[in-house]
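User: Now give one protein:

AI:
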Amino acid sequence: MTESVHSRQRISTTMSSFLATIWILAVAAGTSSTTSHAFITPLLQRQHSLRPAASTALFGGKRRGRLTNNVSVDEDGNVARIMTKRQKQSLGNSKMKKQKGGDKAAAAISPLLAEWAKEDGSSTSSSSQLNDSASTSSSVSSTVFVPFDPDDDDDSFSNKNSKRNKMEQRSQRAALTAAQTQQIDALLEQIDDLLQTNNLDRNELVSYISSLVQVGLSANKNDQVLLPTLKSILSTRPKKDEDKLPSYRLAWVGSDAAICHIGTSLHKVPLARLQEVFLSLGYNRWELFEVIRILGPFPTVRNTLKGDVKLSKLPSSTTNLNREGVKMQISYTSMVDGTGKEILAGKADNIKYVDLDVWFANEKVIVATVPPTGEDDGGVYEIDPLKGDGSNVLFFVEEENLDGQLEKLRAA
């Protein structure tokens, strides 16, 4: 009996110690799990956390972004950025600036540094010759000096010579023009002296006029001087009120028929005398002023003829004179009589056409002749019109003050 009691006590003691051990292990295991979860849980929350439910309504009302407008996906699935035109321009400008900066940097290398680089390159190529034969051949071929093409030097030299020749030709033309101007001025003085004399020698005067035309010809036959000069005179347009149109006075005419060819022929009226004929050019128009004096207690009459002008070069087959000439065609469309009444041509049939052949023209003088119109000559000069008595010659000289002269003649 006593042994059974003792065995029971031993069993209960063993069971209690065993339970105590199990309880201690359980407590220890719970503590360690709590500690590990305490360190693991925040990490999991950071990795797999979502927005709180309370903030869902706040972010739900936000507008859709423009990411899809700025990003595109190609066929391979690569994402690329879509750039606007302004961004592309700015990107291109930045690249150009970088390139310019690189060029400037490359251009800023000093000559000594370039020579040192060449020497370093040659030493590097020589060392590469010892190591590899292929690299040696490439380096040698790259350092071969290629001389300049001598044709380039010849071309540049020929260009310089051509420019020099052109400059010399221009200087010669300028010198020739100055010499011609002096000769023209001298001839004009001689012609003026002849016109002031009472007994005028017609043949001598015509010879001076012919010499004047010959002096005005260009030294080079290919250069056309008369036509451009006459065009510039006719196209004059005064820019200021002080500027005036080119004006001329008929200083001498070879015959009455030549005057009637360009004028009204009203000076043939009995008791009428032709005093002066003036000419005004500009705006591609021709204005002829006839000042006619009537004998007796009558006022001076001024007739004005207005018309357009067309210019053309005279063909060599027409002149047969080896001389530059210009055909001037005047179409009279308006006439103002002595009473101030203007008479318009109206119909095309009423327009009067007048032809003149011009042989010399500048701002000081104009030399013209009446062209041949007979059926026998066919419009070709058989005789030089600037020789003989000059019956078809019209000689105009510059008139500096046209309005003043008209006032003196009481025909303003």
